[in-house]
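(Structure overview)
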Amino acid sequence: MKLAIQICSELEWVITKSILKIGREQLRKHHYGEYFNYRVGLYQTIIYHSGASKTRAAAACQFAIDTWHPDGVINLGTCGGVDKGIKKLELILSNKTFQYDVIQCFGKPSAKFKESLKTNLKTPWVDLSGVSKRLHIGTIASADHDLCPKARKILQEWGVLAADWESASIAKVCELNRIRCLILRGVSDIPEKRGESKEDIQERDYRKNTRIIMKDLLSIIDQMKFHNTKGKV
């Protein structure tokens, strides 16, 4: 079974290469960034960088599907915590995604949460029995902006666990191509009031926690087993 693992942000990519000890001689170039071949457990994988934002993530995902013909696409990365019970460094497996920055301003009023931009993720092809860390399972919402306290409050009303920039676009591309998709994200930061401090707490936490999260996610992938089951995705 061949897997393609997509890493989005520049920091996540740099840290991934560092954790896996990938040398310059192992790197190759594709349209949207770098990639390399790597064996994860029993599976041959292509790990590739897309860059941040829904556009780059969707384009790179489609390129990977068309070029390498994987049996499944896995997205690893960070996210902002939305649910009141979610803590920093906790890990999320997404069973649903949607884009929350698409707003129709003319004609019939439209909610931000358009049905056509929701994606349900089915993961019976993934065996989690060997995973040592707890995974929260739920919805990840995506938008081309960082999570702020106002957006967090709105998303909490919709039962969202976390928010990021890219998951919804990757999931939708995989759905349209009828290919298996697994989204795993770790909570790097949570919107908090700064009070009198001028320090950007979210930025600090993102940079401090990304290495821990990427190490955990790569370790989890190594513990998983994947089934190349036939039939509809």
